[in-house]
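step: validate -> pass
step: tokenize input -> pass
step: predict -> running
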Amino acid sequence: MTNSQTVYDRVLSGRTWEEFCDKLKETGKVILDPKAPATELDRAEGWRYLTRLTRIALDMMLENADPDFPNFYSASHETAKIGADNPDNIYQNATIDGGRDYVIRGTRGTVPYISFATRANRYSIDGTMPFTGEIDTDRLKVSDDGSFEILLSQTKPDSGNWLQQAPDSTMVIVRQTFLDRDSEIPAQMTIARVDGPKHPSPLSAERLDRALMSAAAFVDGTARTFVGWTEFFRHQPNKLPALDQEMFQKAGGDPNIYYVHGYWDLKADEALVINTKVPECAFWNFQLDNYWMESLDYRYQKIHVNKKNAKYNTDGSITIVVAAKDSGVGNFIDTSGHRTGTMLLRWISAKDHPIPETKVVKLSSLG
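step: predict -> pass
step: emit ->
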């Protein structure tokens, strides 16, 4: 029996579906790990996290997986979150093949920062996403009418915007970073293969089998990767230490961003006070995340602060207060019913990277 016949039989018999469901069930052990918090809120968010990763995985591996007909979709947004997703971002992803050429066309808008990166998406294999090319706001050439065009290829063109690919490139990630979503206009863009086929092929058993197996592996690999990060940060609770940036870049981080991750653990009557200098930079923000490294619900709670909306001290530094209640001191960040979780301070295109001072105090001592 040939391999294609085997895949054909797996799909027709339902075995592919059974293995997909079995793998998702196995990933549930991540949520039940004894090291993970077992509160009602954390456990409920953990199960929801797996449903969110499953939605993302199916979008990525099945619905938008054809490199001949790529289109932009969002792998992180208000109800689907991965790896300390930025509340000030619009994330857009597209599937590509490093051996084919593509063109992105769009209008710039007014959003302050945009970056385009090609990556080798290995989340379903080893939880990494190695960098293969990048272009950002500072190097993006835009026409007088606000339009732009970017060629994606392995060979650099003689002129114009170029986003480098490698033979193993499989994804484009676009980050649009806002200072004020209410007043700034996002970029609009499309992506298409250069000289590709006119029509996609019908869905085959082989493509479905590969997509569902990859989706299940993505859910498992992503969940384990970021729980591993959380447990690593947990060794220095209530600190924002300097950490090796290579770890974050391998997972798909923007090379222009310096990431300062940490783990917080507070009692109901405690607050975490963070003081830091602010370097010259294009953007900065601070956010609070849960144990699963999902940003807390920024639609309804005050869980992040950025360069524009922050309250600054007289010397230009900032004070951030993480607590269950607002004491009126500094920039309040709401724990939103959580007692533990992760946190992130990011500097974009910063001249230097100050490491914050932190201390835990009684909430009653503030104000």
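step: describe -> The mean pLDDT is 95.
step: cleanup -> pass
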